[in-house]
Amino acid sequence: MLEERAQKLIQDVIESVRLTREAAGFSAERFKLGSLYSLTVKTVPQLIMGLKIRRSELNIDLILGSNIDLLYKLKNMEVDAILVSLDDSMNDPDCEQIPLFSDDIFLATPADSPFAQQAEVDLSDVRNETFITLTQGFATHQDGNRVFQQAGFEPKVAMQVNDIFTLLSMVSSGVGYALLPGRIAAVYENRVKLIPLQARYRLQQHIGVVFLKAKERDPNLLALLAECRMYAHRHAS
């Protein structure tokens, strides 16, 4: 009788430790990965496939959002790591980051636009055109503002949307133009063209993974970071 109670007590302690570790994000059976919408075209699938090979038992939840939303979730431990644009908002003393790749900003036009066949575009030529943008909080919204400031005009914005795929759909339908990163080129590739900006307007986004320093020894996170380093190496070469 005493032995049974002792065994149950030990099992209860082991279970409590397991639940506590999972609540803190250490080697939990579920990994919550935050990402920008635009990274789901290529980057996220490749990283998740690699992570599943390393830790086949791991269940992965994908949470999509803007730079600002994802950083908030990371700081509140609602996600374990985030794939974002490494702009100034990501300089947080509680976080570490690993760069993955850099991406140019392009003018997105409908396939039948007069600008679609140009080798590059002077933004002053589109100052009277209608634009569609992402809402504030998205890195591409902020980068677009910087490009327009450099071009010396404020765009006529017909609509703001909450995800990049809706924005692409609006561009493909001829609702307006947009400034978008090159990584989404494969989406609507027959209906939307990405035209390089003239050199004086060119801007790059630097994409990377951000995580809390407090979790940097978690085995699941370490597996993701190893995969991210391999991805960055392949992209660099």
From TrEMBL:
Keyword terms: DNA-binding, Transcription, Transcription regulation
Domain of life: Bacteria
Gene Ontology CC terms, in alphabetical order: protein-DNA complex
Listed InterPro entries: LysR_subst-bd, MdcR_PBP2
GO molecular function, one term: DNA-binding transcription factor activity
Gene3D superfamilies registered for this protein in UniProt: 3.40.190.290
Domain LysR substrate-binding intervals: 28-229
Keyword Transcription on entry: yes
Family: Belongs to the LysR transcriptional regulatory family.
Protein's name in the database: HTH-type transcriptional regulator GltC
Organism: Pseudomonas fluorescens
